[in-house]
Amino acid sequence: MALFVVIDDDPTINRLICEALDREDHEFHTAQMLGQGFDVARQVLPDIVFLDLSLPDGNGLEWLEAFLEIPSNPEVIVITAGGSEQSIETAIYRGAWDFVQKPFSIRSMTHLVRQALRYRKDKSGKEKVVALNRQGLIGGSPTLHRCLQQAAQASTSGAPCLIRGETGVGKELIARIIHANSPRSGGPFVVVDCAALSESLVDSILFGHRKGAFTGAHADKVGLIQSADKGILFLDEIGELPMDVQKNLLRVLQEQTFRPVGALEEKRSNFRLISATHRNLAAMVEKNAFRQDLLYRIMGQEIFVPPLRDRLEDLDHLTAFFLQNICQQYNLPVKGISSDFLPTLRSYDWPGNIRELRHCLEHSVVSADPEPILYPQQLPNYLRVKIAAGELEHQRRPVSTCSEDKVISENQTPCAFGKPAGTLKEARAEGSRAAEKIYLKQLIFSSKEKTVKDLCEKAGVSVSHFYALLRKHELELPHGRST
Ligand SMILES: Nc1ncnc2c1ncn2[C@@H]1O[C@H](COP(=O)(O)OP(=O)(O)OP(=O)(O)O)[C@@H](O)[C@H]1O
């Protein structure tokens, strides 16, 4: 049994199609208006939509792509009444599976339905091979690859998408990749920087306004939501949206309609929403700083863009790419790098991610000029200071000695976390040497056993082994301890 939505304003046609579907035991929903049919389809997620091209509230052709982007990715069969060849051609080019001309018989309709379902079944069995347009994105690390796979999936669906990741990590670039690879690539990509929206003008910027709606509104203005019609609305840093704007936005997402400031009538905009944030929105919901209902609405699909420090494999390629790019921008011959340049870059944790890497390389290129080779000394001072501070910290607390002079209790962390020195085997040997020394110190200075024999019994070692251990750790028996 499959699920159908039939949208035609002619009740006879609706009845005829439904009769054919009923005979084959399929489930179906009908609508006589475009908007109503779209809402039903979004709710029930059909396998197939029958869509009349000429409906009282609009032209089905204009909405074809929106139907195709419904998360079930339905096949759309357009219905025409002696429709022009032109509109049938347009429908096919826009992704309609097939068309049917009125009038038609129940028999021909049944045949068409069976064919469409067979096609859909075959299609779902085959894995889609995706050749992604990467929009200049560099990197081939496994973590980035996973993220690109998610972006490829998001490109084929029309569901809202939430991109998470630290600042400068490439969230907007991923959103642009989704746009470029989606059926909406011919439409606009409209960016809204929610962190930069001034509270007094935010409604007007998003929804537009009518001339005279407020002081300074000298003419009608189209808002960003309207500008995103047939394309993608990218809400960057959505976590920064004020609460009352969140409420208005939720309404737009539910209804796909909005009202410009000062206008009486509602407008429709057929956009797909992609949002991005570096914040933990679920935690914000718990603190009542973000609406839960809005969170559910915006995260149909979630993509996490990993920080640069978790994909240092990409750093070499990114460095080569940016150096070429920057030198070109400054009209300079491409600079080389010294052998310690990349290791230095790798020893930094890049809180500002790819954006910070580009800025640092630009700084180096400019400060090195006219030298043909870049050295770590030409990196920004703040970065070199941070790397040096990290190294000092590491030297001050090497794994091997940090615990030696501390009494270790069960609940105490034996050492502060530093960068690991040497191999795991070496670290284990050092750790066990330190633990041995602490044990011996506790044994000979704190325990109640008075004689060496007692101490050896407690420790479970022979007397000769005990003296060997004391020599190894350069320890002496305190006065009062006797053999
Ligand atoms: N893998 C990459 N390859 C090439 N350039 C990249 C890559 N990732 C990011 N960039 C570049 O780094 C800069 C920052 O990326 P982008 O603006 O997409 O990050 P963001 O996560 O959206 O940042 P913010 O959180 O500040 O909005 C842009 O110039 C982008 O083109």
From TrEMBL:
Top-level taxon of origin: Bacteria
The Response regulatory domain, residue ranges: 3-117
GO molecular function: ATP binding; DNA binding
Keywords in alphabetical order: ATP-binding, DNA-binding, Nucleotide-binding, Phosphoprotein, Transcription, Transcription regulation
Domain spans labelled Sigma-54 factor interaction: 137-366
Any GO BP: regulation of DNA-templated transcription
Transmembrane segments annotated in the record for this chain: none
Sequence positions bearing 4-aspartylphosphate: 52
Pfam families membership: AAA_lid_14 (PF25601), Response_reg (PF00072), Sigma54_activat (PF00158)
Record protein name field: Two-component system NtrC family response regulator
